[in-house]
Here is the input.
Amino acid sequence: MAMAQVASAFPVHVPTAAEEQRILLHGVSWETYVMLRDTHESRHLRMTYVKGTLEIMSPSRRHAVESVMIARLLELFCVERAIPLFSYRDTTWRKEEGERGLEADDCYARDRDKEIPDIAIEVIVTHGLLDKLDVYRGLGIREVWMFENGAFTVVTLRGEYYEPIAASEIFPEVDFAQLARFVLPDQNAAIVAFRDELRLTTPIRTPRRRARKKQ
Here is the structure.
């Protein structure tokens, strides 16, 4: 007589490529956070810390692919438009005085190396357990570009709060709708197509007229 199978009361959940694992810890001292962050084994994890609360996140494959694509597109854009760009990639930004720390997906400064980057880029696949904008505010990062569901939302720091803006004040040349169209799984094809489109729409520079010498 065949035995009927009983569904497990504790099924094992295997995360999909789009899912991200997050845990939230309370009562974490600054020293403990720094120790955990600097541990070699945790280098692939993202940690967001604010005033004793620590979120640890393992980025998904989709998260990684989209963040890499955005970085490649922006860097190509700046090369094609002759805009000096300084990359910090996923550097950990910490400020003990404000008890804040995190890693952006990418962060950049325009024109030169700076103590604090001008912009941070955040890919949102799953929503976090902490308010990262509060952390960015405490770190003094001027703009945050958030990419979610195929579109960008951009905010800029005005005093103590971030406000949404339609276009970047640091990179006004960037068309976010255009950039978003090329965040595609086929990275090589997307990069080539984006480059070709940029070259078809290269801004026309009017030569400066030389001042006439006085007779």
In short: Helices lie at 30-37, 61-80, 132-139, 176-181, 187-200. The domain at 61-200 is CATH 3.90.1570 (tt1808, chain A). The chain is about 25% helix and 25% strand. Residues 10-14 have pLDDT under 50 and may be disordered.
